[in-house]
Specification:
Layout (H helix, E strand, L loop, with lengths): L2 H14 L4 E2 L17 H7 L2 H9 L2 E2 L13 E5 L5 E4 L3 E2 L7 E2 L7 E6 L6 E6 L5 E6 L9 E4 L4 E5 L2
Antiparallel strand pairs: 1-2, 3-4, 3-11, 5-6, 6-10, 7-8, 8-9, 9-10
Length: 162
């Protein structure tokens, strides 16, 4: 584990301790025009409390709690909010952070925005079709991209290859 991974894991563990997730009141999923839109009530009806907090309020699930972190079968990870294919299993790897990590998304599957909530600027990643928060992108991933898409499993559904 390198220094950045250790610092990230420590900070996230501290922030997610206790309630199992962390969110900043008043922050919400990506804003803008999206192909799939729902009312707050519709989102709340289709998602668990944790899924809603992560996907619509940009919370972070506790590290090591998603069964998708250990998913190793061939398939595709899709958005829980709109079922858009986001990440092929071939780009998933074990980052050692406790969250499902990928080095590349499918073409035109995700959008990004600046996230200034934690004393620095990070790159937030969201579904380009419904705006649901997925996680963050860091510059400490493996080749060929050097990126680490560190995602909340609560935002994803895994569909195995038949």
């Amino acid at each position: 584990m390198n220094r950045r991974q250790m610092m990230t894991r420590t900070a996230c563990a501290a922030l997610s301790a206790g309630a199992g997730m962390w969110a900043v009141p008043g922050w919400s999923a990506a804003t803008g025009t999206f192909e799939v839109t729902r009312t707050t009530a519709e989102w709340q009806a289709m998602l668990t409390d944790l899924q809603y907090a992560v996907m619509r309020e940009e919370a972070t699930e506790r590290a090591g709690t998603s069964p998708l972190n250990d998913e190793a079968r061939a398939g595709v990870f899709i958005c829980r909010g709109c079922e858009l294919p986001l990440y092929p299993s071939e780009t998933k790897y074990d980052s050692g952070t406790g969250w499902p990590s990928f080095y590349q998304s499918l073409p035109e599957a995700v959008g990004t925005k600046a996230d200034r909530k934690l004393f620095s600027v990070r790159t937030e990643v969201h579904c380009r079709r419904c705006g649901s928060h997925l996680g963050h992108i860091f510059d400490d991933g493996p080749k060929p991209t050097g990126k680490r898409h560190c995602l909340n499993g609560a935002s994803l559904i895994f569909v195995p290859t038949a």
